[in-house]
Amino acid sequence: MMAEKKKKEVFVEGPIAPQKIGESIGKHASMKGIGAHSIFLEQVRADEISGKKVIAIEYSCYREMADEVFFTIREAAFSKFDLSCMHIYHSLGRVEAGQISLFVFTSSPHRKKAINACSFIVEEIKAKAPVWGKEILEDESSIWKKNTPSTP
Hints:
The chain has 152 residues and is of the alpha+beta class.
């Protein structure tokens, strides 16, 4: 009987610190079978909505379901691509404009697989993960953000 795979903690309270990103990259320096890494960083934009600037996004999720969805996305990526390693971190709570809210890091012996896996994971998260963002405007009013499909 196979052991059940351990679910990785995805959620981080607040923004994803540049130090966490750097540490994740640095830990792979000794792994000599990896030939490529691909990294996606989602940063909160200071968009303008109805004449008001977005100053932050407040992220929330349906935690139990989100943990399952992220686990499923991870497993699908590992089975579809020849990955050596993968990290996914998503913010919960308030993230100010200019700060990082999503970090996806894939590693593989070959660049195309790392790049394609990273893109696959990001698109799956946007399409399936029960994570919501409320855009906080400069007057502290808010509006729910809608995920939109990527455009080529």
